[in-house]
Amino acid sequence: MARIFCVANQKGGVGKTTTTVNLAAGLARIGQRVLAVDLDPQGNATMGSGCDKRALQTTVYDVLLETATVAEARQRLPAVGYDLLGANRELAGAEVELVDLERRHLRLKQALATVDADYDVVLIDCPPSLSLLTLNGLCSAHGVVVPMQCEYFALEGLSDLVNTIKQVHANLNPSLQIIGLLRVMFDPRITLQQQVSEQLKAHFGDKVFDTVIPRNVRLAEAPSYGLPGVVFDPASKGAQAFVEFAGEMVRRLADLRTAPVGTPVAS
Ligand code: ADP
Ligand code: MG
């Protein structure tokens, strides 16, 4: 059975897409069968996986509107080691088109169920909003991975996301949990970042992943080559951190399997 995770944070530019594509590539590297789902109309995860969003005939948009199955819409990407359900600007219209349709928040969940046997892990790159698209992601998932920068307003911004996750957990998807908070773009030389990092650990305890992703220029350069950093420059500090993170995720997955269903989300 595939374990399904959203990479979510309602802020833009915090590292969601970088986390999605590099965790996907890192997991693939350690032998997991991975599907990445681009749920952001910007299509950055699509481009960053080496897939030209403008050339895509079928995308997650078609899947949400049920004009294509996941099996029809997914792309096999041997260069990066995982499969991709891509997105492009068309997806921005889905929000409006889904509004009057039944099961509008469950479209992705039902679609992913049809490829459950094909993957060990499904990673969903969410848009920077708590929209119907993100809701489709949260209703599909067993857990949420929250990338965040250790900046002054980091904790404040988190409360909306945590509240949304709690509401989805209570009303729509009882198996949803926060898997963990991932510190990204971390620069240990900056005292404030160290302080916020300590605050995060004090507040969220072991929900903070042990792995820290450093600020690393190779991770930022990789998308312009259509590759995750893990594939573009495996020796770079950023790539190594993501492969380490993939290992930590696999260990947490093992814990998840043994945890009782409906373990409450962190406060
Ligand atoms: P989001 O998907 O949340 O909008 P992105 O993953 O696109 O965020 O990241 C925002 C920007 O920061 C991108 O230009 C990306 O290349 C860069 N970036 C992300 N993570 C790192 C990192 N660890 N080191 C350096 N640059 C990074
Ligand atoms: Mg993004």
Can you put this structure into words, describing what you see?
By secondary structure, this protein is α/β, with parallel strands linked by helices. It has one domain: Rossmann fold, CATH 3.40.50.300. The protein is built from 12 helices and 8 strands. An 8-stranded mixed β-sheet has the order 3-4-2-5-1-6-7-8, with helices on both faces. Strand 3 (75-77) and strand 4 (82-85) form a beta hairpin. Helix 1 (16-29) crosses helix 12 (237-258) and helix 6 (107-113) runs parallel beside helix 7. The longest helix is centred in the last third of the chain and has 22 residues, at 237-258. It starts with a strand and ends in a 9-residue tail after the last helix. The mean pLDDT is 94. Residues 12-18, 44, 128, 184-185, 213, 215-216, 219-220, 223, 238 line the site of adenosine-5'-diphosphate.
Topology diagram in text:
Layout: E1 3-7, H1 16-29, E2 34-38, H2 44-47, H3 60-64, H4 70-73, E3 75-77, E4 82-85, H5 91-98, H6 107-113, E5 121-125, H7 132-140, E6 143-148, H8 154-171, E7 177-186, H9 191-204, E8 208-214, H10 217-221, H11 229-232, H12 237-258
Parallel strand pairs: 1-5, 1-6, 2-4, 2-5, 6-7, 7-8
Antiparallel strand pairs: 3-4
Bound molecules: adenosine-5'-diphosphate and magnesium ion.
What keywords describe this structure?
alpha/beta, eight-stranded mixed sheet, binds magnesium ion, 267 residues, binds adenosine-5'-diphosphate, Rossmann fold, 17% strand
